[in-house]
Amino acid sequence: MTHPESKKRPMTVPRFLAAKSQGRRLSMITAYDFLWAGIFDAAGIDSILVGDTVGMVVQGNNTTLPVTLEEMIYHGRMVVRGTRNALVIVDMPFMSYQVSPKQAIENAGRMIKETGASAIKLEGGLTQVETIRAVARADIPVIAHVGMKPQSIRMLGGMGKIQRDEEQLLQDAHAAEDAGAFGIVLELIPCQIAARITRELSIPTIGIGAGRECDGQVLVNCDMLGLTEGFQPKFLKQYADLRSIATEAIQQYVEEVREGIFPGKEHSHD
Ligand code: KIV
Fold this sequence. Notes:
41% of the residues lie in helices and 14% in strands. By secondary structure, the chain is α/β, with parallel strands linked by helices. α2 (34-42) packs across α4, α5 packs across α6 (129-137) and α8 (166-179) packs parallel to α9 (191-200). It has helices at 13-21, 34-42, 54-58, 69-82, 101-115, 129-137, 153-156, 166-179, 191-200, 221-224, 242-259, and strands spanning 26-30, 47-50, 87-91, 119-123, 142-147, 183-187, 205-208, 216-219. The protein has two domains: 13-239, TIM Barrel (Alpha-Beta Barrel), CATH 3.20.20.60; 242-270, no CATH class. The protein has an eight-stranded parallel beta barrel with strand order 1-2-3-4-5-6-7-8, surrounded by seven helices. It is built from eleven helices and eight strands. The protein is globular. It binds 3-methyl-2-oxobutanoic acid. 3-methyl-2-oxobutanoic acid binds at residues 30, 49, 51-53, 91, 145, 185, 187, 208, 218, 220.
């Protein structure tokens, strides 16, 4: 019998690009391990981003800056193992590509060879033109990331600030496309600007806090599943409250162990 999932066509870079002209909106979510990647893939997600948000939601840091290349490779591998159809994109962490295009090609190459992912993402537009061009010319598909760039937190003075400089954002987006990016993440920008960028570019725009006119949307899995505590920005829709469900399950388990209810006869071997 054929598994229903095996009938689905895997997402590729050309299919991702074609989605825009076909008017098909793209769904993307972050994942950091085999377990969740498998759940998202089976649910039909188009694309999985192994985001450097792993540094915050999994590792517990305040920023994404401490994440290393080795850690991204480790998480990328796990996600690829759990994915059958979705396009897997791995984030290049802070200081793994900013030094020079040569450094970027070498590290992006390691990312693709050692994880089996299809593409990499890096932050920047105009300032990263040479790097995007160099990596794309090495046949490594690149997604750019403009708007609020978490790796620039020291320059921005804080996370979560909406970026409103329309001319700068347009220049960044066009520069990334011209340099060979096959997609672009737009983070925390006004929806009218995101709509204009989406109209003007021929590559898909994937928004997070950038409104509904983007060609696709991305969310951080722990945020949209209600696992992260106390994070309620305006752009976030919480699709489930898994933190409460998990907490209640663990409380019941603790109580049943204390009371001698678990394990019951049915969970014990004769
Ligand atoms: O690292 C990440 O998870 C991201 C998304 C927020 C787009 O870059």
